[in-house]
Amino acid sequence: MVEDVWSTVDDYFGQLLLGRDPVLDSALEANTAGGLPPIDVSPHQGKMLHLLARSIGARRILEVGTLGGYSTIWLARALPPDGRLITCEIDPKHAEVARSNLAEAGLAGVAEVRVGPAADTLAALDPTADGPFDLAFIDADKASNAVYFEQALRLSRPGSMIIVDNVVRNGRVADAGSDDPSVVGTRLLAEAVAREERVSATVIQTVGTKGYDGFLLALVH
Ligand code: SAH
Ligand code: DHB
Ligand code: MG
């Protein structure tokens, strides 16, 4: 199976480049124990987010879709001591596990979980008091991707980076006739980004332990 090769290669490079990380391991164990679905970003993807955040010197990070906070930990670890991360989660159970995982990771003072529909949480954020956010990571319900992107843009500044997870989903995004709300939402996102003059964007398709998917990366200019 080609998926086995993807995982084997992820593991090979993971042993060399990611090393052991008991904090992240125990966060994933807590997610499993709490019955959360295993739909976190992969370790390599988490480190990619971390490196991108560091490379742009991010001080404020916005996340949409917390789950158990696995990606949140990777991102929050990129922040300086006075940095701040706000992450939006609709499910109180997920938020509870995430808060516990963030506390165990020593990040409770840096990363704040806001519970509720992300569209409401984002609409209530102020671009100057809460932001501007240097990096936004969008990874919640895919049907609302265009809404989240618009809000992330409102809360950004020139130079901010906006990253959207799961834009490929085994290639289903290319099906113009799909009635899957996730596919429709992601296609609406792509069309909105294409029309948006304030950003320059690309999509990178990925394979690995989480299958075949991809990220959209947009730079605000
Ligand atoms: N970013 C996480 C994975 C997020 S999974 C990681 O990589 O570790 C997607 C999450 O989005 C789930 O926890 C789900 O409950 C949440 N979600 C779904 N719809 C939402 C909404 N309308 N508002 C906020 N969060 C939502
Ligand atoms: C799903 C959501 C995700 O954010 C992800 O990375 C993988 C799968 C899902 O809803 O199935
Ligand atoms: Mg995702």
UniProtKB/TrEMBL annotation:
Pfam family, one: Methyltransf_3
InterPro entries from the UniProt entry: Cation-dep_OMT, SAM-dependent_MTases_sf, SAM_O-MeTrfase
Gene3D superfamilies noted in UniProt: Vaccinia Virus protein VP39
GO function term, MF aspect, one: methyltransferase activity
Keywords assigned: Methyltransferase, S-adenosyl-L-methionine, Transferase
EC supergroup of this enzyme: transferase
PANTHER family hit by this protein: CAFFEOYL-COA O-METHYLTRANSFERASE 3-RELATED, O-METHYLTRANSFERASE-RELATED
Protein name, as recorded: O-methyltransferase
Origin species: Pseudonocardia yunnanensis
